[in-house]
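User: I need a structural model of NAD(P)-dependent dehydrogenase (Short-subunit alcohol dehydrogenase family) from Streptosporangium becharense for a docking pre-check later this week. Nothing fancy, just the predicted structure tokens so I can convert them on my end. Input:
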Amino acid sequence: MALEIDLTGRTVLVTGGARGVGAGITESFVEAGAVVEICGRTEPAPGTPGSAAPRFSRVDVRDETQVRRWIDEVAGRHGGIDVVVNNAGGAPSADFASASPRFHRRVTELNFLSAVFVAQAAFPVVSAGAGGGVVLNITSISARRPSPGTAVYGAAKAALESLTASLAVEWAPKVRVNAISCGLVETEGAAGHYGDAGQMARVAGTIPRGVFARPADIGAACVLLASPLAVHITGAVLNVDGGGERPAFLQYAPDPARR
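Assistant: Understood. Predicted structure tokens for NAD(P)-dependent dehydrogenase (Short-subunit alcohol dehydrogenase family):
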């Protein structure tokens, strides 16, 4: 039996909700009936998934003053906030030893401290709702496996998963806090990261399901965790990664079934 999730009347915030994974999250919540507000540095183009949100605000989530102002404005417009999705993040590849301290600091601010600022500013509002609030943190497979070239990004995502577990205990029972760990996702920037179509197909072959996730797959997981179906789930990290990564030894083992 199919279960339809209806979030009509719920107010949802998505940081970085205009593009990539964030746009998929935005569109999924809109389809579930929620009122969605997004923030970022660049407004979504008309007709793109991120433009499904009725309101975009230009906010630098690394700036706690801008974050607090945005949270207050959204709460004032809607009389409250039910769900916050900390999605903003990312990092270009860089050699750890030669990257500047400023680079490492900016990566940490975007991928970890931004979620700290948003969650802290939103807590008084999301915890005041009668049904309890939800905070969702978007993390990465890089949090729990080596992340060469993006080492500080992986470390920041690992910190965000730790924060998720701690806040789930500290804020219970008023607010549920969970994380969604993304595997490889096919976004508009994927080709620049993974290569041309042939290279992307080979990379997809390392995923047990054989395909990249779509942004909408991440969005569907967020909608599920924000819904009453997940009312007893908090402090969890939900892997949305198609089975993770195929162990390297399987490429060389003569008969993997016997190992």
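Before docking, keep this in mind: Helices lie at 20-31, 64-78, 101-126, 151-170, 190-194, 197-204, 215-226.
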